[in-house]
Amino acid sequence: MTVAATIPIAPHTLDQMMPMHLLLDGDARISHAGPTLIKVFGRPLAGRSAFSLFELRRPRVVRSMDDVRAMGDAKVYLRLKDGSGTTMVGAVAVLPGGAQVLMNLSFGYSVVDAVARYRLAGSDFAPTDLTVEMLYLMEAKTAAMETTTQLAHRLHDEKAEAQVEAMTDGLTGLQNRRAFDIGLGRHIARGGVFSLMHIDLDFFKAVNDTQGHAAGDAVLREVAAVLTDETRGTDMVARIGGDEFVILFGRLVDGDMLHSIATRIIARLERPIPFAGRECRISASIGIARSTDHDHVTAERILSDADLALYMSKDRGRGCPTMFRPEFRRGSQPG
C-alpha cells in the first residue's frame, strides 16, 4: 500500500488538532493561526509578521525565512512579545514546495502560568494534548502536591535560565559586558596567556541616522554573526556597548595569527549588508592587546592597552587593526 506524498488538511481541521499552530508564508507573515493563539494575543493574527509577535531565543541566529527553511524540521524556543515574558516551545516543519512553514507551539513548562494569565481552559488545547489531563489533575488535592514539586523544578530551571539571560546581550545573542568582565577575570586568575581584541564599528552612526535604528539593529546582528563565525567555540565574543565588541582569545598570543583574524573580520564587515532593499555599509577599527606584554596583567591594564591600540587604528584612518606596543603608553603620557 502506498501513501500519498501530500495530504490536504483543511484549516478547521488544523484548528481542532493543533489549536496553537501558525502557517507562515515566504515573508514570515501569518496566513492562518490556531484559535488558542488568537485568544492569547486577543486579536486576529493573519497578515502579521511572526517576528513581530515572537522573540526567537534558540536557535538565536535566525534573521529571515531562509534561515527558518534551512533548519528544516526542528525544535525552537520562543518568547511572546506581549510584555509577559511567556516562553513557548515549537516544532517547525517546512511544507512540501517550501513556500509555507507550519509551526506548532506549546507552553511547555510555562503552561500553568499561561493558563491563568490568558484565561485558558481544557477546550483551548487539542483533545490529545496532555495539558488537558494536567489541568484536570490540578483540581485534585493529590495533583496539587505533584504540581508543587513541578513548580520547584520549573523555578530552578527559570532561575538558571535567568542567570544565562543576565549574561546575554538581548539583540545579538552574544555575551554582554557583565559576562565579559567575569570571563576576563577568570582568565587572569588562571594565569594562562590570552589576548584581547577591541572592535569599534566605523560609520555605524551614519547607518542609524540615514536608514533608521531597525537597519542599525540588523547590522549589529550581522556583526555578531561574523565575529562568531571567525572565532573558535572556546573564544568569548561579547557586545560591551552600542557598537563596541570584544573578543577574548584564550591561549592565543601569536601576533601574525591575531592580525590575520582581525584583517578577515574587517574585510567581512566591509561587505555591504542588505536591509529593506538597501545596502548598509560599515567598517571596523580594531585594537589588540596580549597578556604576555606584562609581567603582572590586570583587567584595567589590558583593557587600557586594547583601547590605546584601537585609538591608533582610528588615528591611522579607521578600517584597520593595530597591535598594542609599549611606546603607545609612553606617547599617551602628558609631557
Average pLDDT confidence is 85
Question: In terms of structural class, how would the helical and strand content be classed?
Answer: alpha+beta
Major sheet attributes: 6 strands, antiparallel
If you compute it from the alpha carbons, what radius of gyration comes out, rounded to the nearest whole angstrom?
A: 25 Å
Count of discrete alpha- or pi-helical segments spanning 4 or more residues: 13
Strand order, largest beta sheet: 2-1-6-5-4-3
Order of helices and strands: HEEHHEHEEEHHHHEHHEEHEEEHEH
| Count of extended strands | 13
Outline the low-pLDDT stretches.
Answer: none
Shape: elongated
Query: What is the terminal separation in angstroms?
Result: 90 Å
Which terms would index this structure?
13 strands; alpha+beta; six-stranded antiparallel β-sheet; 13 helices; 335 residues; elongated; five-stranded mixed β-sheet; 43% helix
What does this molecule look like?
It is a single chain. The chain is an alpha+beta fold. Helix content is 43%, strand content 21%. It is built from 13 helices and 13 strands. It has helices at residues 11-17, 35-41, 50-53, 65-71, 111-117, 130-137, 141-166, 177-190, 204-211, 213-229, 255-269, 299-315, 326-332; strands spanning 21-24, 30-33, 54-58, 74-80, 87-94, 101-106, 194-202, 236-239, 244-250, 273-275, 278-280, 283-290, 321-323. The strands form three sheets. It has a six-stranded antiparallel beta sheet with strand order 2-1-6-5-4-3. Strands 8-9-7-12-13 form a five-stranded mixed beta sheet, sandwiched between helices. A hairpin with a 4-residue loop joins β8 (236-239) and β9. α9 (204-211) packs antiparallel against α10.
